[in-house]
Fold HAD family hydrolase.
Amino acid sequence: MIKLIASDMDGTLLSSHLNISEGNKLAVLEAQKQGIEFMVATGRDHTEARPALEEAGIKCGMITGNGAQAFDKDGKLLFTVGLAPDVVQEVITVLKEHGLYFELMTSNGVYADSQAERLENFASLVAQNIPHITFKMAIAMASAHLDMLQVTYVDSYDTIFNDSSIEVLKIITFSDKGQAVLGPIGEQLKQNPNIYVTSSFSNNLEINHRDARKGYAVKHVADMLGISMQDVMAIGDNHNDISMLEMVGVSFAMGNAEPEVKATAKYLAETNVNDGVGKAILRAIEEDL
């Protein structure tokens, strides 16, 4: 019997317009009504994840930063798994050598050193999700969406490195050439046994502590709740979801998921633009998966 559901956000719970559909919302609320714990497991920072949930009226726990942090439904921090300062410097050196733009997700929120590049990368994401729109429209949509998210712009990341109270949780880098450029860099970074490299979209790499993975975080939360992993359902669409899909009793890959994700999951859901999460939740409940 399902007692805990962990859902990815981008490409999964969220529609192509980056909001939660009515169908998904109603299914989540029904699961909660039946006493099933629901939480999101996302690569986003908690300040970036919260607006879509609040807009839909969903109050739930959050695993953020690919498992770097977790929060209960009241926003209380449960745990943090950050990167060591020397590892951060090593990763950044590699990214700078390749001339890549990157952002830092920290214990004090998200930091970026270029508002223009952040907008351009987010617009590329929007354009991927809604192929029929022009890039100019994608820029407008991205600008409106980013206005809702909390990010601190700095002239130099030295501001963060010189503040011992700020812990770096994740480094995310982008390239409009996708994995053709990012793939070899990811392989280079993987030589360091202290980090875990994954991606949530074809145009990014996400670098975390080796123990900051969605699967580990879901198990940590399940253990805290006294729930067996066999009674946990997870649903996702991209490579950073694979660890949790491998570890739970009931796993769904979205219809729009990457091939490796579909090969990992036990069940296939519909796409994120067709209430895939909501339909998967209702199926799991009705069929007692």
Observations:
- The radius of gyration is 18 Å.
- The domain at 85-209 is CATH 3.30.1240.10 (Hypothetical Protein, Haloacid Dehalogenase-like Hydrolase; Chain: A; domain 2).
- The chain has two domains: 4-81+212-287, 85-209.
- Residues 115-129 form the longest helix (15 residues).
